[in-house]
């Protein structure tokens, strides 16, 4: 197989294959294309791969040159144009692995959904890496085993350092898409993943109190959800993690049930129940495959137990509705 990268932002987890002992079976050169917004960043990304690559100024030219049956397209573009780049790759017949959001407008999502219904459609997989982390897999397992009882309340946190500066396009809501879509999306997805429950409605709020130079970019956002079992969930994110913090991010998940609590914090998963003192259960999934391999296998259709087209579309729909709920500060049905 070959990998074709579009854009110089996001995680591009498939690049991890290039560091595997046999490069994950990936043939060289890899292809890298501009996302149409920031070609300089795309070239910088290509050079950082430290492997032979071919660069394209136009992503459509790269898609025309590649072979859909032997190439996976990795999209890590400026966030607001990702949906267009994904759709173009799907129209050319490629399987796609993309950072979130895969759609920043209802129109982008509608276009992608139509493409997934074609008879020859290949997977569109979203890089929600929490799904591939042992600590979050352990939390999901505890819920599925019934160890916490009936899920009553779930909460998820994403807190990042802002750093010295972010790209200028963070000030443009159309290109940035919103902190909910870029950062909080992880928390929103992992609550669905861990609890196995769907969201039925949402209300939210966000704003920018600490980073006024970045205009419409929210420095914090929170969404309250009603769950499909009538339980409650809260997801919140911020760019306010102090510079002196020991890590760039502080990711947390807490699922409270009728018989216990499972919590992810500091990269570990802890379980406490009515019958058992707090226990670290992370190592239940210590040997789970790396995130990049799980994404690769899903894109090839080998294993879609963690990632799939259906899950990508479901979370994309929730994100658009949740952003509207936070923008309008009103309940939105999901």
Helices and strands, with pairings:
Layout (H helix, E strand, L loop, with lengths): L1 E5 L23 E4 L5 H10 L4 E4 L2 H7 L5 E5 L6 H10 L3 E4 L7 H11 L7 E3 L7 H11 L6 E10 L12 H4 L2 H17 L3 E9 L12 E8 L4 E7 L10 E9 L2 E6 L2 E6 L5 E2 L10 H9 L9 H20 L3 E2 L1
Helix pairs in contact: 3-4, 4-9, 5-7, 7-9
CATH architecture of the largest domain: 2-Layer Sandwich
Which H/E pattern describes the elements? EEHEHEHEHEHEHHEEEEEEEHHE
Q: What is the count of structural domains?
A: 2
Q: Which range does the strand content fall in? A: 25-35%
Task: Tell me the major beta sheet.
Answer: 9 strands, mixed
Give an overview in words.
It is built from nine helices and 15 strands. It has 334 residues and is of the alpha/beta class. The strands form two sheets. A nine-stranded mixed sheet has the order 14-13-12-11-7-10-9-8-15. Helix 4 runs antiparallel to helix 9 (309-328). It is globular and about 60 Å long. The model has no long low-confidence stretch (mean pLDDT 97).
Please provide a brief summary of the model.
The chain has helices at about 40-50, 60-65, 80-90, 105-115, 135-145, 175, 180-195, 290-300, 310-330, and strands spanning about 1-5, 30-35, 55, 70-75, 95-100, 125, 150-160, 200-205, 220-225, 230-240, 250-255, 260-265, 270-275, 280, 330-334. The chain is built from 9 helices and 15 strands.
């Amino acid at each position: 197989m070959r990998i074709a990268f579009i854009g110089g932002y996001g995680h591009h987890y498939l690049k991890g294959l290039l560091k595997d002992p046999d490069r994950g079976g990936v043939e060289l050169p890899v292809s890298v294309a501009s996302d149409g917004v920031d070609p300089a960043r795309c070239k910088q990304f290509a050079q950082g791969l430290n492997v032979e690559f071919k660069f394209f100024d136009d992503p459509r030219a790269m898609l025309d040159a590649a072979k859909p049956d032997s190439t996976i397209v990795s999209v890590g573009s400026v966030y607001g144009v990702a949906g267009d780049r994904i759709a173009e790759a799907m129209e050319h017949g490629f399987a796609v692995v993309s950072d979130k959001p895969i759609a920043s407008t209802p129109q982008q999502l509608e276009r992608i959904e139509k493409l997934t219904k074609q008879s020859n459609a290949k997977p569109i997989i979203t890089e929600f890496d929490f799904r591939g982390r042992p600590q979050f897999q352990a939390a999901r397992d505890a819920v599925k085993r019934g160890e916490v009882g009936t899920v009553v309340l779930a909460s998820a946190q994403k807190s990042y350092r802002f750093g010295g500066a972010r790209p200028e396009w963070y000030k443009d809501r159309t290109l940035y898409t919103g902190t909910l879509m870029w950062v909080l999306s992880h928390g929103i997805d992992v609550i669905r993943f861990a609890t196995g429950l769907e969201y039925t409605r949402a209300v939210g709020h966000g704003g920018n109190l600490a980073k006024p130079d970045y205009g419409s970019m929210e420095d914090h956002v929170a969404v309250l959800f009603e769950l499909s079992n009538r339980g409650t969930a809260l997801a919140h994110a911020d760019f306010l993690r102090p510079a002196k913090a020991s890590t760039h991010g502080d990711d947390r998940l807490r699922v409270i049930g009728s018989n216990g609590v499972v919590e992810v914090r500091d990269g570990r998963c802890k379980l406490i129940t009515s019958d058992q003192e707090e226990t670290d259960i992370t190592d239940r999934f210590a040997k789970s495959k790396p995130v990049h391999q799980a994404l690769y296998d899903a894109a090839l259709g080998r294993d879609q137990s963690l990632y799939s087209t259906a899950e990508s579309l479901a979370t994309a729909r929730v994100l658009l509705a949740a952003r509207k709920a936070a923008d309008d500060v009103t309940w939105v049905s999901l």
